[in-house]
Design goal:
By secondary structure, the chain is an alpha+beta fold. Helices cover 22% and strands 34% of the residues. The protein has a single domain, classed as M1 Pyruvate Kinase, Domain 3, CATH 2.40.33.
Length: 172
């Protein structure tokens, strides 16, 4: 399964507007260099460890078409906009984005703070139904550029039958 990094967004500090970038360095166990969460100045930095966030361009288009809310200017507050892959399909996997390797860790719920910063009623609800994207951690440092391929390199979701067979082998 492959997709593309369509856009890269960062903000220097919490509440600051998101800015689009052509490229960014993803730093292992840190996040995206120059982003508020890498710097520890994000709104949720004190209690939420979400190094990198991803959202689907297709979800943003659906929100625009269905709710009349256009978040394509960065008001979605996510770092990487993907195309051709649902970020939820990257959960429990390690995937390559450019030169970096990331690990999909958990869904990213929509929050009232995103709606407040977007300055538009209905944003939180529009990002519901799994459209708010996911969190990922950086496993291997590397450069990510807009247009880079997203490709799964390892599934971390073990098959229960494989686990049972491995346990039986160890017991024998």
């Amino acid at each position: 399964m492959t997709g593309t990094v369509e856009e890269i967004w960062t903000a220097e500090a919490g509440s600051e507007p998101m800015e689009t970038r052509d490229a960014v360095t993803a730093v292992a166990e840190g996040g995206l260099r120059g982003d508020r969460y890498f710097e520890g100045t994000g709104y949720y930095s004190a209690f939420d460890t979400c190094e990198v966030t991803l959202i689907a361009a297709e979800a943003l288009a659906a929100i625009r078409d269905e709710a009349g809310i256009d978040l394509t200017d960065g008001r979605h507050r996510r770092n990487l906009v993907t195309r051709g892959v649902d970020p939820h399909d990257l959960l429990e996997t390690r995937f390559r984005a450019g030169e970096a390797v990331l690990e999909g860790t958990r869904p990213r719920p929509p929050c009232a703070y995103v709606e407040e910063l977007a300055g538009e009623s209905g944003v939180k609800a529009a990002l519901g139904d799994g459209r708010a994207g996911i969190c990922a951690s950086v496993v291997e440092t590397g450069e990510i550029e807009a247009g880079d391929e997203l490709r799964i390199v390892e599934s971390l979701d073990a098959d229960p039958d494989d686990l049972a067979a491995a346990i039986r082998e160890r017991q024998d």
